[in-house]
Design goal:
Helix content: over 70%
Shape: elongated
Distance between the termini: 71 Å
Number of domains: 1
Radius of gyration: 22 Å
Number of helices: 4
Number of strands: 0
Low-confidence stretches: none
Oligomer: single chain
Strand content: under 5%
Length: about 150
């Protein structure tokens, strides 16, 4: 089988635009998932920690909180992976074509602009959100366990 011909500049530009739009979509979805998960966590914690809530409701809401936490972390990680794959593809496309690397990692772009990362900015947001959602999951599990023990 002979190698396929190189795409035209127009085809390459269309592909670049398509991947750039897809990357932006993954980036947007990456932050919607934990935000919605956090809203669900707040609702479930309100039920689980209310002193007037029955034992079964406490246990159920605590377990659901743990499940929502896991689901949110998994979805955040999956969207992050897809966004990262597209960012790398876009950066390589730019590099091969001699274009400015506008899809270089944020840390590289900030360094190039003379903006050093200090304090909280140094932390990777997806890791902070993963840890925060995991805390909610552990609190949910603890609430469920306490609800089971206190009969």
């Amino acid at each position: 089988m002979s190698p396929s011909p190189a795409p035209s500049d127009e085809q390459a530009l269309l592909q670049y635009q398509t991947v750039a739009m897809r990357r932006a979509g993954f980036d947007s979805m990456m932050w919607q998932a934990p935000g919605l998960g956090l809203a669900a966590q707040a609702f479930l914690m309100t039920i689980a920690l209310n002193p007037d809530t029955g034992q079964l409701a406490k246990v159920t809401s605590g377990l659901l909180s743990m499940v929502v936490s896991f689901m949110s972390v998994q979805l955040l990680a999956k969207h992050r992976r897809h966004e990262l794959a597209d960012s790398i593809w876009l950066q390589e496309f730019e590099r091969r074509r001699g274009l400015p690397e506008v899809h270089a990692p944020a840390a590289e772009r900030c360094r190039a602009a003379g903006l050093p990362s200090k304090g909280l900015v140094k932390l990777r947001s997806h890791r902070v959100w993963t840890a925060g959602l995991a805390v909610f999951g552990f609190v949910g599990l603890a609430t469920a366990v306490v609800g089971m023990v206190r009969s």
